[in-house]
Design goal:
Elements: E1 3-4, E2 9-12, E3 15-18, H1 26-80, H2 87-112, E4 118-120, H3 121-154, H4 159-162, H5 165-183, E5 205-207, H6 210-213, H7 216-254, H8 259-302, H9 309-333, H10 335-349, H11 361-364, H12 370-375, H13 377-385
Antiparallel strand pairs: 1-2, 2-3, 4-5
Helix pairs in contact: 1-2, 1-9, 1-10, 2-3, 2-5, 2-9, 3-5, 3-7, 3-8, 7-8, 8-9, 8-13, 9-10
């Protein structure tokens, strides 16, 4: 065997080979460490994305369950309680049905088509329009509640003649028809597909996301400015007039102490309490939906880089959570609904059949009921004559 130190040449069996030592080339160690770090970084990013998706999905599912249970409870309470069957609560039921459908239909579909599946373009468009319809139904139900409260306060003597139960349910049906017309508008051509092409071209499979099929100009100019912001401005004006009228009448009542006036003051105080509760529902709707629509405005003006993806998903979660908070607001702010919840819990969950709360006298004096209206008719006549 012959060995050369400089070239590290080994001669074995008459053949000459060059030996290489692992420690003789430090650059190879450096390249191996860079590749290892890169692979580790990729794995960490994938794990972080998976954890983020699991957290987002878990929150969406929790919101969906809360939406379904809470709003079923609202509808159940109204159906079981005779004193709830009045115009205001007809629109409350309409809002609860829209919120229930958000939890049972919109949220699962939103999780399913959030870029994870490939479905035909038209199917993705139809699924996205369902969310628009439910949002619009919530807005119009809130608008109907505001109009009902305004009529209740501004024309109390003619209110019962105008706001009958049949007309109220007809208004509910009209709200849903208008919601379908406005929400399904993209199906008639205002979408990100090829409206002038044959349906076959738009039937190709795509990675389905909401903004892949719904154009931002529709979301900003038509849906946000026309279908949400304008009704919110009208509702704000109506509630301002309601509170102004109630405050003015209460001040007038404070100047007198006649017995008939005390009944009117009690009625006005209850109306003010109920109006505050329903105005809080409106305020929560605006607070939960405004961030998402404002981010759509930023996306339209600056492009996809204008809004971080995590902020966009937080806006989606916040908008869905709005459908779960309304039953909580009803329970905290409206005594009748809170008592109805407790009665349902006692009778149907605990199977305890004690004294029925549905027929207790305290319910007959709650705001918005016909009994309360009959008790204050003479006072309202006196008030309108002043």
């Amino acid at each position: 065997m012959h060995t050369e130190d400089q070239g590290c040449v080994c001669v074995c069996g008459g053949e000459q080979t060059r030996c290489s030592e692992a420690s003789s080339d430090p650059s190879s160690d450096f390249s191996i460490s860079i590749e290892t770090l890169f692979c580790l970084l990729v794995v960490l990013v994938l794990v972080a994305l998976l954890m983020a998706w699991l957290i987002y999905t878990s929150l969406e599912l929790a919101i969906a369950v809360a939406c379904c249970l809470g709003n079923v409870l609202v509808v159940w309470a109204v159906c079981l309680t005779r004193t709830f069957r009045q115009p205001t609560f007809c629109f409350v039921v309409s809002l609860a049905v829209a919120d229930f459908l958000v939890g049972s239909v919109a949220v699962p579909l939103a999780v399913l088509v959030d870029g994870w599946v490939e479905i035909p373009f038209q199917a993705c468009l139809a699924v996205s329009c369902v969310v628009l319809v439910l949002t619009q139904a919530s807005v119009l139900s809130l608008l109907a509640i505001a109009v009902d409260r305004y009529l209740r306060v501004s024309i109390p003597l003619r209110y019962k003649e105008i706001a009958t139960e049949q007309r109220s349910w007809a208004a509910v049906v009209l709200c849903w028809l208008i919601s379908c017309l406005l929400g399904f508008t993209p199906l008639f051509g205002w979408h990100n597909g090829h409206p002038l092409s044959s349906p076959l071209l738009n039937s190709s499979h795509i990675n389905c996301t909401f903004l892949a099929v719904i154009p931002l100009p529709y979301m900003v100019y038509f849906n946000y400015l026309g279908c949400i912001l304008l009704p919110l401005a009208v509702m704000t004006l109506l509630y301002s007039l309601v509170f102004y009228s109630l405050r003015k009448r209460l001040r007038r009542e404070d100047e007198t102490s006649a017995p008939v006036e005390s009944k009117l003051r009690a009625f006005l105080v209850k109306e003010k309490r109920l109006a505050r509760s329903l105005a809080l529902v409106l305020l929560l709707f605006a607070a939960c939906w405004m961030p998402l629509h404002l981010m759509n405005c930023v996306l339209l003006s600056t492009g996809p880089q204008g809004v971080p993806q995590i902020a966009f998903y937080m806006g989606i979660l916040l908008s869905h959570a709005n459908s779960a908070v309304n039953p909580v607001v009803y329970a905290l702010r409206i005594i009748k609904i809170r008592e109805a919840y407790l009665e349902i819990w006692r009778r149907y969950v605990l199977c305890w059949r004690g004294q029925r709360v549905f027929s207790s006298p305290s319910w007959r004096s709650q705001p918005g009921e016909q009994n309360a209206g009959h008790q204050t008719t003479s006072a309202l006549v006196h008030e309108s004559g002043r």
